[in-house]
Each structure stands twice: as structure tokens, then as C-alpha cells.
Specification:
single chain; elongated
Length: 280
């Protein structure tokens, strides 16, 4: 049995070779649809961004009755041009369970990004993993991301890596998903945070854009399976980070499972590593 297709340019070649700037003929479209039904995983490193907008617009007009790739399970876009963002829903289907949309080239409008995000729960009702790094900081994005979380299937969602703060309602929800094993948390200043309650959590990423207290995330948390934690801090007030880290992780009972800790900061830092001695 041949492995599932993992690229998209081959089935599109029949259209691109003809400088496709018109709706496809019936035979062309039938040939494309046959190839498209076999697509299971799409991992793209920027090739889709160079497709003429005329091609994408024509495909969008043709794919009105069913998804362009009806059996696509994974969409992984390493880089995304701002012009391509409105066409991302075109590549999704009810079978899509993994979505990763990498760095967005140039600066898209917040309306364009928010509109795309809000379509995801309806297009992918059984989403398991969602990754949206480097999103613009804007209340409209926060609302869209929070709505996506609230509208997603909580029984299937396992990994939620979205670079955006959440509304209070969404924060309450994400901290109560028992099967979530890989969340990324953006701590908005003065945001209320309920205790973490992830019995299966193995990976945690925390982003702090201010001088707020990141340790609030660990307050009354039970993280007995936590293996990896990563911090991204823009704050100049680093202080004795490792001592604070030791205190909160020991309180969360994660010292026996935790094996990797990352701390990213653009500022100078001279740490004292002795607080890491209690960890094996």
C-alpha cells in the first residue's frame, strides 16, 4: 500500500501548467478531484503562497459542494503570505484534525486573520491539534481565538498552541479540559487565572509580555505528569527566576517527571543554577 499523499502541487500541476486563469474544464476538474480525494496530509513550506490568486479564486468557486480535499487530515503551513490567509479554509475538511499555520509573512489585517480563525470549528468539528503562533495582539484576535476554543469539540481537543490571550470565559474552559496535554498559555496582564487542572498535561508553554506574575499559572495546580515547560518572557524584571520556578513546580508535584525547562528572554540574565538541584 502506498503512503498517503503529503503534498499538493502535483494534483494542481494540470491547472498551473496552463497558467490557470479560468474555471477548469469538466475533464480537468474531474482529474483534479480524483487526485484531491487521495490527499491525507499537506505539509507546505511556502509553495502555496506563490499560486496566483486567480488559481485560488477559481478553485474556491469550483469547490462549493464539498471540501477541496475531502479526506485531508493534517494541514501544516510553515509560512503563510497574507494574501493566502482568506483561502486557508478552502483546504480544510471535516476530516482535518491537525492544523498548524506558521509565521505569517508581512502584516495581514486583523479582520482577515480573525475571520479565518472563526471558521475553524465549523470546518473541522473533530479538531485534535491547533497551532497558531505569532498572532497579532488585538482584542479582535482575542475574541476570535476564544470563540474558536469555545466552539471546538472539547472531547477531541488535545493540543492548543495559540499565541493570543483569551477571554475570561475561554480561560475558564481551557483550564478544565482534562484530556488536554499540550496547551500554550499567554498571560494577559491582570487576567484572572483558575487553577490548572490538567491530569494528563505533559507539555506547557507560557508567554509573558509584561512584568506580571507568571507563577499564578501554577497556583494550586496538580501537574504530576508534566515533562516539558517553556517560558517566553519579554519582561526586563527577570529576578531570581529559577528560585521562583523551583518553588512553584515543587508545589505542583512535578519534580519527578519534569525533564526539560526552557527560558527565552531578549534581555541579559546571569542565573544561579542551584535551585535546579532538587530535580532529577
Amino acid at each position: 500500500m502506498s503512503p498517503p499523499a503529503t503534498h499538493v502541487l502535483s494534483p494542481l500541476n494540470c491547472l498551473i501548467r496552463k497558467a490557470f486563469q479560468r474555471p477548469p474544464e469538466m475533464q480537468e476538474w474531474a482529474r483534479f478531484r480524483k487526485n484531491a480525494r487521495g490527499m491525507r496530509k499537506l505539509i507546505d513550506r511556502g509553495s502555496l503562497n506563490i499560486l496566483p490568486l486567480e488559481v485560488l479564486s477559481a478553485l474556491q468557486l469550483c469547490a462549493t459542494n464539498e471540501p477541496l480535499f475531502p479526506n485531508l487530515g493534517t494541514l501544516d503551513l510553515w509560512t503563510t503570505a497574507k494574501e493566502f490567509i482568506p483561502f486557508i479554509p478552502l483546504f480544510l475538511s471535516p476530516r482535518t484534525t491537525v492544523i498548524h499555520i506558521g509565521s505569517i509573512e508581512c502584516n495581514p489585517t486583523k479582520e482577515t486573520v480573525a475571520s479565518m480563525i472563526t471558521t475553524l470549528p465549523a470546518l473541522c468539528p473533530n479538531l485534535r491539534e491547533i497551532s497558531l503562533p505569532r498572532l497579532p495582539r488585538d482584542p479582535m484576535i482575542t475574541t476570535a481565538v476564544s470563540g474558536m476554543l469555545l466552539g471546538s469539540n472539547r472531547a477531541t481537543l488535545r493540543c492548543f498552541h495559540v499565541d493570543s490571550p483569551l477571554t475570561e470565559e475561554a480561560r475558564e474552559v481551557i483550564h478544565k479540559l482534562p484530556d488536554l496535554c499540550g496547551p500554550s498559555v499567554v498571560i494577559a496582564k491582570d487576567a484572572s487565572l483558575p487553577p490548572l487542572a490538567f491530569p494528563n498535561l505533559t507539555n506547557l508553554m507560557i508567554t509573558c509580555d509584561h512584568d506580571g506574575d507568571w507563577s499564578r499559572v501554577f497556583y494550586k495546580a496538580a501537574l504530576g505528569k508534566l515533562e516539558t515547560v517553556a517560558f517566553h518572557s519579554e519582561s526586563e524584571q527577570i529576578g531570581d527566576f529559577l528560585e521562583a520556578f523551583e518553588r512553584v513546580v515543587l508545589a505542583a508535584s512535578a519534580q519527578d517527571t519534569l525533564s526539560e525547562c526552557y527560558f527565552h528572554t531578549p534581555h541579559s540574565w546571569n542565573p544561579n543554577y542551584s535551585p535546579l538541584l532538587p530535580f532529577t
